[in-house]
Specification:
The chain is an alpha+beta fold. The protein has a single domain, classed as 2-Layer Sandwich (60s Ribosomal Protein L30, Chain: A), CATH 3.30.1330. 31% of the residues lie in helices and 26% in strands. The chain is built from three helices and seven strands, in the order H-E-E-E-E-H-E-H-E-E. The strands form two sheets. Strands 1-2-7-5-6 form a five-stranded mixed beta sheet, with helices on one face. The protein has a two-stranded antiparallel ribbon with strand order 3-4. The longest helix has 23 residues. It is globular. It comes from Streptomyces kebangsaanensis. InterPro entries: Endoribo_LPSP/chorism_mut-like, RutC-like_sf. This is RidA family protein.
Length: 154
């Protein structure tokens, strides 16, 4: 077990299976020392955990938890091409999309769920640049979608 996966276990989490693509893309691709993930939805056991707009059907607190699930799915995607999460030198960038009710403006707080998970699991290597974007709708009516870019040790 890698040190990163041991840290996940310490937090009561396990790395899930990679979520199969919903369309014509790969869950993650490697280019040199970088891994780019596709947008990860809050899928649990192959199913979308919750649907709806944040600030309407989904509370910001629920959405923050769903962003954690997205980040965990992104780590699984990274491992699928890197082989070992201990090879992660740092998370470079996180982009979070929040399907938002028209008057919802708390996207950064929602995407904090992903950012905080990455920092908990990877320590300083998990601190990153980030964008949090409100959108009208996401695939399958998901409330949140997160993609990450990581640099691997050479």
């Amino acid at each position: 077990m890698s040190a990163v996966e041991a840290k996940l276990a310490e937090l009561g989490l396990t790395l899930p299976e990679v979520v199969p693509p919903l369309a014509a893309y790969q869950p993650a691709v490697r280019s040199g020392v970088y891994v780019y993930t596709a947008g990860q939805l809050p899928m649990v056991d192959g199913k979308l955990a919750v649907t709806g707009k944040v600030g309407h059907e989904v509370t910001p607190e629920e959405a923050k938890g769903l962003a954690r699930v997205c980040a965990l799915n992104a780590l699984a995607a990274v491992k699928s091409v890197a082989g070992d999460l201990d090879r992660v030198a740092r998370v470079v960038k996180v982009v979070g999309f929040v399907a938002s009710a028209p008057d919802f403006t708390g996207q950064p707080g929602v995407v904090n769920g992903a950012s905080e998970l990455l920092a908990e699991v990877l320590g300083d290597k998990g601190v990153h640049a980030r964008s949090a974007v409100g959108v009208a709708v996401l695939p399958l009516d998901a409330p949140v979608e997160v993609e990450i870019q990581v640099e691997l040790e050479p």
